[in-house]
Amino acid sequence: MLFMDFKLDNKTVVVIGGGCECYRKLQNFLDSTAKVTVFSAEFSDTVKALAEQGKICLSQIQITDAQKFIDQLSPKPDLFLAVTDDSNLNVQLVRAAKKLGCIVYCVSDPSLSDFILPAVAKVGAVRIAVSTSGRSPAVASELRQRIERLVTAEDLLAIELQVYLREVLKGYMADQRARSKLLNETLNNVDVKQALREGNLYVAKALSLKFVQNTEATKT
User: Fold this and answer.
1) Which one of 67, 129, 153, 182 is at 20 to 30 Å from 95 when CA atoms are compared?
2) How far apart are the C-alpha atoms of 137 and 141, rounded to whole Å?
3) What does the alpha-carbon distance between residue 25 and residue 204 come to, in Å, rounded to a whole number?
4) Cα gap 116→134, rounded to integer Å
């Protein structure tokens, strides 16, 4: 198993099935600019709410011929998810979508899936995937919640500071290894860490800039 952060921006995602499982899987795509279309004969209120918010598109249809349905899809989906409560239909759809060249997910037969959708802990810019390889989604969900409680406000500010420092350091040195070394030294500076601990990103940035300038001054 290999976890990858798939870039979904402007990708086409097709989901078959409009129930609770569909809603859970849709959460993985809402932060992207992917074009997500859900096909189903019926939709749950939660799925309808996402459509009303403009986050997904709905297409009401009763699929009776999996191959015919797949053949009519245009454009070809980048990702295809079959999450209906009809196991046979899911399998037929996924097999047909695979022939079309789609990356597929089948809720009723993981062996046919090209990828899994792990529980993802989300806190600010932090994303941590948790998987039990499909053995226990309930445990994966519990672990996700634990991880979310572990990520602190200080951690999130440290991420923002690192983004700022990367741009600052580009103006001081061209060598990537040297930048990385100084970046780590700056982030581990006692005063900088204290400012982050106190929740003051503005002060942390000022102290970091001063540390970088003083470090570079000693080299000249």
Assistant:
1) 129
2) 6
3) 38
4) 8
